[in-house]
């Protein structure tokens, strides 16, 4: 484990290790920084390969307490080649990083929560909390149960039923707020000011955000310790895309991969696209929006890391796209039909945006490109309601089935009256 | 005409611990002027060298982001509750 501490991203002031996300001096966000010389000996290809296939194999570059023993095998999700989807969207070297099957709650949020709760224990919190658009709620609730924390979860009242149920089942206290995620988030900042709770995405946020780096570490390792040419990443608060970049940069710093300029592409729903709007307009800052999209897990109108996401994208020579709700639904089906992966709305956003990026020539077909699928379709089945006709049942008779088969193969018979 | 301003803990060491303040400011610029005068050491935490509101500081009026209300041009109404809330970012570059 390398030593690490919080440092202000803007003024550089060091804050040691504590539950805090803001520099009191300049009000800017704090970031975990490491002693890379210490990390070097433990973060080698050989040593990583000898560790269990989960995100903890990258522990030397995660902010974990000394002698921390993880209780769950989070991460190390499949990186799949996607030849059929590739053909459909004009790509040739396309991969899917499939966090729809991340454990324990089927989204990439399991990674960030795992790191945040490690620190919550070290800081002595008995209650953990979060504001969430759903996936984070599920993950905090589940991992709190597993690790013996009380959990208080704050969500916008109109979340998908599966995400609400998938929080309550773990015994978490769920507070539904009549408002948008941005309002929930603002409320949580105020609550964190008053209550001594470990808010994973407020006062534990610098540690939490580091968990996202494991997506980047895994992509590189699964490509044979090479960096891809491009990554396409869904954006809500904008943190994931910046942390994948940090992971790649760290791998280069430690000499684990050859240096390479990776382009970062962000994906949003048009109904909530503050980051892609800014990138397209060439602006360095976001203008907040009022979200209106079925991609609720991405519906953050005032993304906290928007500024840094814009910077990561534009400096890399990447781009940001956005797609309509209709395209989201079509893209969910496209990924399922071509590669057998059922993703939630955020994944539909990623696939839909990737299709546009290939179509517009922003990504070349022969470049190695990774699409980050961050959540599971079973949590947002409501958006597919009405997409599939309910077939009338048939009698359990072979003849009936043969007739049914004919019906599916042939033009329907004309019934004479 | 009176509004209430809530100051977050992170800034209270610049306000002698004051977390709530009533004042008669008519808009955001007047509010900042009031705060500058009352708490001189708070000033650089609210606006940058160019006088722009700091990137990581959000201002809400009765639960609404002031940018949706017209930002600095919004005229405070009697009884408005203004919240200064830090934006919780955690991204790397």
Question: How is this structure best summarized?
Answer:
The complex is a heterodimer of chains A (417) and B (93). With 417 residues, chain A is of the alpha/beta class.
Q: Would you kindly provide a written description of the structure presented here, covering whatever features stand out?
A:
The complex is a heterodimer of chains A (417) and B (93). Chain A has 417 residues and is of the alpha/beta class. Chain A has a domain of 202 residues: Rossmann fold (3-Layer(aba) Sandwich), CATH 3.40.50. In chain A, the strands form 3 sheets. Chain A has a 6-stranded mixed sheet with strand order 4-5-13-10-11-12, with helices on both faces. Chain A contains 15 helices and 13 strands. Helix content of chain A is 38%, strand content 15%. Chain B has 93 residues and is of the alpha+beta class. Chain B has a single domain, classed as Ubiquitin-like (UB roll) (Roll). In chain B, 16% of the residues lie in helices and 23% in strands. Chain B is built from 2 helices and 5 strands; from the N terminus they run E-E-H-H-E-E-E. Chain B has a 5-stranded mixed sheet, with no helix packed on it. The radius of gyration of chain B is 13 Å and the shape is globular. Chain B starts with a strand and ends in a 7-residue tail after the last strand. At the A-B interface, helix 7, helix 8, helix 10 and helix 12 of A face strand 3 and strand 5 of B.
Strand pairing plus helix content of chain A: what structural class? alpha/beta
Q: What is the H/E string of chain A?
A: EEEHHEHEHEHEHEHEHHEHEHHEHHEH
Query: CATH fold name of chain B, please?
Result: Ubiquitin-like (UB roll)
- Write down how many β-strands of chain A occur, each being a DSSP E stretch of 2 or more residues: 13
What global shape of chain A is seen? globular
């Amino acid at each position: 484990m390398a030593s690490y501490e919080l440092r202000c991203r803007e003024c550089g002031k060091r804050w040691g290790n504590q539950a805090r996300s803001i520099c009191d001096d300049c009000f800017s966000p704090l970031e975990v920084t490491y002693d890379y010389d210490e990390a070097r000996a433990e973060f080698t290809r050989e040593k990583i390969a000898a560790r269990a296939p989960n995100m903890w194999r990258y522990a030397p570059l995660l902010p974990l307490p000394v002698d921390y023993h993880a209780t769950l095998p989070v991460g190390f999700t499949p990186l799949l080649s996607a030849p059929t989807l590739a053909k459909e969207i004009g790509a040739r070297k396309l991969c899917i990083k499939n966090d729809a099957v991340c454990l324990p709650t089927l989204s990439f949020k399991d990674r960030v929560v795992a790191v945040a709760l490690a620190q919550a224990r070290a800081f002595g919190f008995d209650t953990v909390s979060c504001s969430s658009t759903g996936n984070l709620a599920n993950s905090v609730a589940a991992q709190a149960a597993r690790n013996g924390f009380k959990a208080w979860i704050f969500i916008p009242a109109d979340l998908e039923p599966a995400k609400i149920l998938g929080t309550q089942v773990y015994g978490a206290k769920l507070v539904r707020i009549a408002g948008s995620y941005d309002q929930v988030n603002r409320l949580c900042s105020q609550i964190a000011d008053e209550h001594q709770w470990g808010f994973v995405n407020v006062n534990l946020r610098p540690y939490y955000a580091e968990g996202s780096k494991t997506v980047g570490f895994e992509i590189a390792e699964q490509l044979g310790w090479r960096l891809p040419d491009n990554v396409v990443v869904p954006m809500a608060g904008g943190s994931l895309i910046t942390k994948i970049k940090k992971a790649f940069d760290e791998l280069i710093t430690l000499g684990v991969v050859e240096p390479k300029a990776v382009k970062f592409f962000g994906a949003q729903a048009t109904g909530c696209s503050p980051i892609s709007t800014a990138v397209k307009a060439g602006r360095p800052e976001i203008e907040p929006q009022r979200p209106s999209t079925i991609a609720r897990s991405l519906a953050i109108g005032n993304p906290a890391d928007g500024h840094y996401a814009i910077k990561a994208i534009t400096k890399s020579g990447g781009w940001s796209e956005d797609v309509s709700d209709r395209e989201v639904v079509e893209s969910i089906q496209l990924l399922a039909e071509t590669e057998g992966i059922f993703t939630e709305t955020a994944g539909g956003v990623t696939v839909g945006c990737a299709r546009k990026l290939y179509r517009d020539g922003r990504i070349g077909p022969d470049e190695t490109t990774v699409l980050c699928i961050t959540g599971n379709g079973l949590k947002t089945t409501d958006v597919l309601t009405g997409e599939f006709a309910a077939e009338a049942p048939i009698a359990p008779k072979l003849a009936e089935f043969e007739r049914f088969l004919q019906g599916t193969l042939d033009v329907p018979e004309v019934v004479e009256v | 005409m009176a509004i209430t301003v809530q100051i977050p803990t992170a800034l209270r060491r610049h306000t002698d611990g004051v977390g709530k303040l009533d004042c008669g400011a008519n808009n955001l610029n007047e509010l900042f002027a009031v705060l500058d005068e009352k708490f001189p050491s708070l000033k650089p935490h609210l606006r940058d060298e160019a006088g722009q509101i700091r990137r990581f500081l959000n201002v809400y009026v009765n639960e609404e982001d002031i940018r949706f209300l017209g930002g600095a041009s919004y005229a405070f109404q009697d009884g408005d509750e203004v919240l200064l809330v830090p934006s919780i970012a955690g991204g790397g570059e």
